[in-house]
Amino acid sequence: MERLQRAVAGAAAALVLSAGLTSAAAAPAPVIASPTPGSAITTPFTVTGTAPPGTLVRVEADYAGTMLLSNVHGTLGAQTVTADQNGNWTATFAMAPPVRQVTVTISASLVDDNGRARSPVMNVNTTLQ
Length: 129
What we know:
Layout: H1 2-18, E1 31-34, E2 40-41, E3 45-50, E4 56-67, E5 70-82, E6 88-93, E7 102-111, E8 122-128
Parallel strand pairs: 2-8
Antiparallel strand pairs: 1-3, 3-6, 4-5, 4-7, 7-8
């Protein structure tokens, strides 16, 4: 029985690979080149990075901080962009949070045409001035 299960699993993996599909574990995380971790940013800000050419990259920006002893958090948006023929991608965020001096976490991951994650996520923490 175990031998049959391994044979079926192997055949399924070969079928997935022959169809050109990859698992989330097989795809590398995109790289966020800018802004760099710990850097100060202002709005609007542009996020740049690299990924395999032609892949879809989901870029998100979320903020968290405090205002008058209250925690504030939210999103500055999410975009799906395509890496160009050299593997470069860019996403610009114009939305500003209600307060300054918050931590902005920028994340990037590869996604498929349906928006499902195909890679690990890369995160960069910055401070919005």
